[in-house]
Amino acid sequence: MKAIIGFITGLVFSLGLTLSGMTDPARVVGFLDVAGDWDPTLIFVLGGAVITTFIGYRLVWRRGTPLLGERFQLPRRRDIDGRLLLGAALFGVGWGLSGYCPGPAIVSSSAMSLPLAGFLLTMLLGWWLATRLTRGH
User: Which domain holds residue 47?
Assistant: First the structure.
């Protein structure tokens, strides 16, 4: 049952990314270019995500336990350290330069292009490197 729910959730997420324009790197870069030729259309995507999350969390917390698990699994760490700041900065730079973040990049992989292949390759390389450098933390 978890696999079916995971598949349906991933399908809805990928459809949402596609319909909202998040898989179009030019639109994303235009949204991030607040000092230049800013494209504000993705603000509606962001607003919809915030509202959905706000309402969704309130409904889920009323249940007390998840539908397909014994307990909710939330992050325990709340501190801000150098690793978190470096990772966030690298994510932001990669997103700003390419117009892709991991979810939309994977969704877009069905229409592979050279820039997308380069992003996916460097994403996997960064993931591999991060696991090697952070062992034991």
Answer: 2-133
